[in-house]
Amino acid sequence: MTESITLNFEDWDIKLSDRTRDRMKLQIKLSKDEALAFKNFMSMVKPPEVDEDHFLKGIFKLGIETMEIKLMEAVKQHAEDNDLDLSSVGVPVSESPEKE
Q1: Cβ(13)–Cβ(30) below 8 Å
Q2: Predicted confidence (pLDDT) per residue in 36-79, tens digit
Q3: What residues have CB less than 8 Å from 46, skipping those under 6 apart?
Q4: In DSSP terms, which residues pair with 15 in a beta bridge?
């Protein structure tokens, strides 16, 4: 029997604090079920040669990169829908073939 754990981000307690030397501490408190689900996930997908610290940083980095891609797509779509030129602000514009 497979049990599904739903992550409810609205209930998460996230604490962000600035540290010395331009560092930052990010703390995410998970419920018992969420923590167990994450531990199970990590034990299944984390390569043995990667320590937990680097694995967590990798997950965080991939999340940021994925969010950046989605935001850039949304900006490009908004510009396309509203006939805006974003090349002047450094957003790369893909050339689309002209329709005949």
Answers
A1: no
A2: 989 999 999 999 999 999 999 999 999 999 999 999 899 888 88
A3: 52, 55
A4: 27
